[in-house]
Amino acid sequence: MSSRLDMKSKLDTASALLKDLKAELAAYMESNSKQETVEEANLRDALEEPETKTHGSIKAAVASAGKELENTKLNIEKAKTKSDCLEVESASLKSELEKEKSGFVTFQQREGIASIAIASLENELNRIKSEILLKKLQEAAQDAEGAKALSQMAQAHLQEAKEEAEEAQAGPSTMESRLRVAQKEIESAKASEKVALAAINALQESESATNYEDSPAGLTLSLKEYYDLNKRVHEAEELANMKVADYSYTYITTLIYKVLIWDNWFSTTVGDLYGK
């Protein structure tokens, strides 16, 4: 850009100088023409008045006029040479200026192409940014939905745990009721044992008192039958105790198992939820 301005400035200067030189040459030619006219008139006067002019003065005037003419011709040649040089330089400067103009036009075209390419790249960049932002928003929405689902699942398990805890709190009273029932069964078995023992004693006493061994209507109880009856009473008592122990063990084991499962699930689920 600076080079183009310099070339234009030089061209303007050369054009102005050429114009001035042409004006000066025209003025000089006009002045020289007038001077030649005056000299020719003087020469003519000198030739027309031989009586008043000597031969020497005429010759001197002719020589002076010839010298002036030669000087004028020389100056004209110099001016023409200088004018030709200026014209050549002006043409060269014009050619350089045209080259600079062409280069500037090419630069503007390239700059326009570059601007279009930059605008295209900016549009592509904005499109990519929009796609990335949309993808991130979709991923965030999916993560939010997943977190919501995990939260709902955790709430459901928490509600289940609360219900199981309430059942566990109500469990002791239920177990206590069952224990009372089993205790009553034990007491009933013991009472049956006492009744059986009392019946055995009564029968033995009755047998000893009446000595009624051969009577078909008599009721006798052998020692073996007594032991069998006593054994069944003890078995009934042990069975009742086993029922109580088995129920207590099963209930406590089930409760512990549920608590362990809930604790493991809660730790894993909450860890995954907050790990994100």
UniProtKB/TrEMBL annotation:
Coiled-coil regions listed: 62-171
Pfam families: WEMBL (PF05701)
Region (Disordered): 31-61
Keywords for the protein's UniProt record, in alphabetical order: Coiled coil
InterPro entries found in the cross-reference section: Web
Residue stretches of biased makeup (Basic and acidic residues): 41-54
PANTHER family found in the cross-reference section: HEAVY CHAIN, PUTATIVE, EXPRESSED-RELATED-RELATED, PROTEIN WEAK CHLOROPLAST MOVEMENT UNDER BLUE LIGHT 1
Family designation: Belongs to the WEB family.
The protein's name: Protein WEAK CHLOROPLAST MOVEMENT UNDER BLUE LIGHT 1
Organism in which the protein naturally occurs: Forsythia ovata
